[in-house]
Every structure is written in structure tokens, then in C-alpha cells.
Design goal:
The structure is a single chain. The chain is 20% helix and 6% strand. The relative contact order is 0.18. It has a domain of 38 residues. Strand 1 and strand 2 form a beta hairpin.
């Protein structure tokens, strides 16, 4: 049986280094997004954040404000 550390799961950078998304700073835009606490969206949001890591501006085309009414 494989040990958890031997599993090929999670997120990796281009060099093959595993990335812990819990240690990444969450963009302020994400904290106001309705999808922020949605388990079904978590992987997509994490991939979007990883893709833009180090960029000057964070852009999310899937953003839905928590403060606007559902449409």
C-alpha cells in the first residue's frame, strides 16, 4: 500500500515541486466571491490562483459577488 506522500495528487509547479494551496495568499477578490466556500469550485479557483501567482493584477472571469443578488 502506498504511503500518502507517495501519491501523485495535488498541485505541482513546472519543475515538479508540490504546491500547498493552503499556504498561498488568497486574493482579496476571492474573499468577496460567492464561490469562495463552494467545495465544487475549490479546485478551479485554486488552479486560477496558481496560474496567476506573481502577477500584478488578479483577474477571475468566474467571479460572482457575494453582495449582488442571484440572477
Amino acid at each position: 500500500m502506498a504511503k500518502p506522500e507517495d501519491e501523485i495528487r495535488g498541485f505541482y509547479d513546472d519543475d515538479g515541486t508540490k504546491i500547498n494551496p493552503n499556504l498561498m495568499e488568497k486574493p482579496s477578490l476571492c474573499t468577496t466571491c460567492r464561490k469562495d466556500d463552494d467545495q465544487k469550485e475549490e479546485k478551479f479557483c485554486t488552479i486560477n490562483r496558481l496560474d496567476q501567482l506573481g502577477e500584478d493584477e488578479f483577474i477571475c472571469e468566474a467571479y460572482v459577488s457575494k453582495f449582488e443578488e442571484n440572477t
